[in-house]
Amino acid sequence: MHACWTWGLVLLLAHSTPAFAVEPGATAPAPTRTLPSPVLDSASRAAQARGSDRPSLERAVAGVVVGALAAQFDGRAVEARFGAIDDQPGEAGRRAISGEGQMRFAGDWAWIGFNFRTQYDVLLGQAAAPELVLGVGGDARPVPNDTAVVQQLDDRLVQALREELAFASIRLQLDRIESVETGQNYLLIDAWGLADFGRDGSSKIRIAAFYDRRSGQWLQLHYDLGSAPDDTAIPPVAGR
């Protein structure tokens, strides 16, 4: 069974009971005369009840997505609203949930688009930690790279690599840098290239960063050694 719906929700982090406009249209499966053991029968009934309770699924998914967004920004107050969501059957009693939405920080007026993916456990009524990608759709737009910001990014990364690896020589050679402006003067930067460690060798590197032009702060800075552009994309909103 495949379902797709839209949430008309604006969810604040402090709220725990969001309201959704669209009600489920799925019907319960026909009963069977083959009776399993009492334990399995109870588990099946619980799973069926949760599977037909779409508001519970929506609350669970919204909770983990908004919680993940806030956690990635050190608990900074976040608002989110959700658009289209796709619900597909998964394995072992799980539903594969993916969708899109928009977030903004408290006090901001502009929204930042995001995509998410998660798994929903029908039996437990719980959603797993989601995968998030920021800076999609909406008013997100490619912009020329800011030389000063790119130099700051290079300096911060070299410092972070020295703290993690303790190599004497570290130099970055970024072959490609892409900047996207979104929300209220934020920059999302995706870059990849080579991290040169001198006598200690070298490694491919993939970088995703989130920069606040107003405050000059790096809200997120993530790097993944050994990743090439064709590898699975790393989410810009994932801390390291």
The end-to-end span amounts to 37 Å
Taking pLDDT < 50 over at least 5 consecutive residues as the criterion, the unreliable ranges are 1-41, 231-235
The helicity comes to: 10-25%
The string of secondary-structure elements, in order, is EEHHEEEEEEHEEEE
Task: Kindly state the number of beta strands.
Answer: 12
Beta-strand percentage?
A: 35-45%
Q: In angstroms, what is the radius of gyration?
A: 22 Å
Number of helices: 3
Shape designation: globular
- Largest sheet report: 7 strands, antiparallel
Give the count of structural domains.
2
The helix/strand class is alpha+beta
Please, what is the average pLDDT? 77
Structural commentary:
By secondary structure, the chain is α+β, with helices and mostly antiparallel strands. It folds into two domains: 3-134, no CATH class; 141-225, Nuclear Transport Factor 2, Chain: A, CATH 3.10.450. The protein is 22% helix and 39% strand. The chain is built from three helices and twelve strands, in the order ββααββββββαββββ. It has helices at 38-52, 54-72, 147-165; strands at 3-6, 10-12, 78-89, 94-105, 112-121, 126-127, 131-134, 141-143, 171-182, 186-196, 202-212, 217-225. The strands form two sheets. Strands 1, 2, 3, 4, 5, 6 and 7 form a seven-stranded antiparallel β-sheet that branches. Strands 8-9-10-11-12 form a five-stranded antiparallel β-sheet, covered by helices on one side. Mean pLDDT is 77; it is low at 1-41 and 231-235.
